[in-house]
Amino acid sequence: MTGRGLFRRSVLAFGLAFLYAPLVLVVIYSFTASKLATVWAGFSTRWYGELIADEALLEAAWLSLRLAFISATLALALGTLAGFALARFPRFSGRTLFAGMVFAPLAMPEIVMAISLLLLFVNMGEILGWPSQRGFLTLVIAHTTFTLSYVAVIVAGRLAESDRSIEEAALDLGASPLKTFFVITLPVIAPALAAGWLLAFSLSLDDVVTSQFISAPGATPLPVVVLGSVKLGVSPKINAIGAISVVLVLLATSAAYVVQSRRGRRLRQRSGL
Amino acid sequence: MIRIEGLTKSFGHDRAVDAVDLSIAAGEFFALLGGSGSGKTTLLRMIAGFERPDGGRILIDGEDMAQAPPHRRPVNMMFQSYALFPHMSVAKNVEFGLRQEGLRGDELRRRTDEALDLVAMREFAARKPHQLSGGQKQRVALARAIVKRPKVLLLDEPLSALDRKLRETTQIHLLDVQKRTGVTFVVVTHDQDEAMAMASRVAVMNAGRVEQVDTPRALYAHPANRFVAGFIGATNLLQARAGGQGLLAEGVRTLLRPSASIDSAEPCWVSIRPENVAIAAPALASADANAEHGVVEAMSYYGDHTVYYVRAEGGAMLRAARFNAAEAGPVFKVDAPVTLSWPATAITVLRS
Does A39 fall in a domain? Predict the structure, then answer.
């Protein structure tokens, strides 16, 4: 092996270790027999058993998944409309203000958003009588609010670089503006919509700050529960949760990879390459 | 067919199209020719309905369409980028317009196939746009735009994305399709060769206005003004005024004697096309009217013809073009003294 080859390989190894060594350690330490998350005391699957038996945690995980799914879907619908308005209508009154307001949550400290949402819900409860207390619905509203900005940015960016004349061609051939949006615009930006939904989903899934303020007993997402339990000392149960999510992400990524490479091969075959 | 009356469009302070009047007959192959910023594309987009005019009328078969949205106009457009729908096959692209009319079943298939046959793309019907070459995309775009048999087909720079060899065959193909379908074609182009070779009539546009509308032959031989004379082909353009029995041009010593009579003493311009300027060795030429001595300052060789840049005795730089036929006479080198001459009929006098 040449000197340069060795250098390249060690850079690669260092980079991979930097990214993945912590994850590997979490997986390893989820199998410890010790009561402490950071101490190795022989192999055991005990913590997985305790995790399955812990109904509060499982409930919180289920709530987190539902919350992420619903708020990502709502954020996709609203964010797409906002992104479309910003990318396709260069002039309307209040456009600059609208753009600023859509993108503000990206730059604002999340805690500011969280406190203002809490204040809003408390005041609404006092003045309007709704929401009487915070729960799943307020969590959905809060998560949709901050994730839709990300969807809007992705959609507006994708639309800005896509050829406007494709939509004009559809109009020219007799499709109404609404039909053009659904039959031409949406399919063309479908990958951006998928990316936006996934981003919104994962942002919601691991959000702590906003959830902490908006959640209520009986409606507490997983990250808030985990953070709460960590205050009493890190249990290897947390490692087990970590290990499971690593495996899930790994499975999802490899599935996406397989699907994509199959589609790529099919396309190459069809075009005779 | 199409009558455009006083059509105006501004972007901010820019008058993109300034009170344009045009009328285009049914079945015509019409070209809008101009440089970038001349307003030709804005004019086309107003006919298609993508830009709303500030004023004026667009009459299509007598009906004012200036304010109608694009999907309610009997015109179709072929886009410069072709704008094929990337997620649809060639057949789906072509049938899209017919589907919007509510056509289904056999009739839909028959008319789609007909349009694909017209551009010889039937065997590619199942392909996606990204699996096609540039020339194939161009033909699919044409089929898609013409499948609804519009009253007018608008073509935005239809050949600009093709390489030179393909451009020539595509020109002939476009002419053929136009003749077979009888649809009125309106082509926007910045390429004068393209406009001259294809169109039955050409509108030359400049700074938002139409300078002249005429057949290609008339545009070249009888330009209406200085802009058209300089824009269409190359020419020798000289400022002149009446004097003696002819015209005195700036930078030229000889008297210009055009075949047409000179009716006023006002200053004017003359245009003499380079191919009408004969170049010869000085001893052989008589220094009569319509002949000028000079020195070759530069030359450009183009294979089929050579352009000589000659500094006239009077100081003007004159261009003389000569075809390089087998018996074209001697070749002149740089710095060689020569005599230029031109027939009286080659002098075009321009008043504006």
Answer: no
